[in-house]
Amino acid sequence: MRRACPGCGFRFEREPGYWVGAMIIDTAVTFAALFVVLVGGILLTWPDVPWGWLAAATAAVTAVVGVAFYPRSKTLWAALEIGYHPVEAHELEPPADR
Ligand SMILES: [Zn+2]
Predict the structure, then answer these.
(1) 54 with 38: CB under 8 angstroms?
(2) Residue 63 forms part of a structural domain
(3) What is the pTM assigned to this prediction?
(4) For the chain, how many structural domains are there in total?
(5) How many angstroms from the chain centroid is the CA of residue 26?
(6) Could you tell me the distance, in angstroms and rounded to a whole number, from the CA of residue 16 to the centre of ligand 1?
(7) Which of 13, 45, 48, 58 is at a distance of 20 to 30 A from 77, taking alpha carbons?
(8) Is 57 part of any domain?
(9) In angstroms, what is the span from residue 96 Cα to ligand 1's centroid?
(10) Boundaries of domain holding 29
(11) Which residues share a beta bridge with 92?
(12) What's the Cα-to-Cα distance from 59 to each of 54, 55, 79, 81, rounded to whole Å?
């Protein structure tokens, strides 16, 4: 990921720990996917639930969604955060530094 937007110079990481919000969004989406697979798998196969396969499927979904969604969660977090904390001029890098 670039340090700043090549167009406007906005530094993406506005302060130390800035991406914790993105991690929270990523974790929430990952748990939602895990919940859907787990509960859906139980409901669709009840009463003969294949617990081993379900455990493997939930582990795979958790790993894939957690990693694949993380860049999107950063974009979503930045958009949400900029919405209530607009970018100020001092946060923009000069064109020579981009
Ligand atoms: Zn920009």
Answers:
(1) yes
(2) yes
(3) 0.86
(4) 1
(5) 3
(6) 20
(7) 58
(8) yes
(9) 15
(10) 20-85
(11) 10
(12) 8, 6, 30, 31
Cβ–Cβ < 8 Å for 21, 73: no
Q: Would you give per-residue pLDDT tens digits along the chain (98 residues)? A: 889 999 999 999 999 999 999 999 999 999 999 999 999 999 999 999 999 999 999 999 999 999 999 999 999 999 999 999 999 999 999 888 77
State in Å: Cα 87 to ligand 1 middle: 10
> Of 64, 78, 83, 53, nearest to 1 (Cα)?
78
Cα 94 to ligand 1 centroid, rounded to whole Å: 12
Ligand 1 midpoint to CA 27 (Å):
26
**Does residue 6 lie within any of the structural domains?**
no
Which amino acid makes up residue 8? C
Establish if 32 belongs to a structural domain. yes
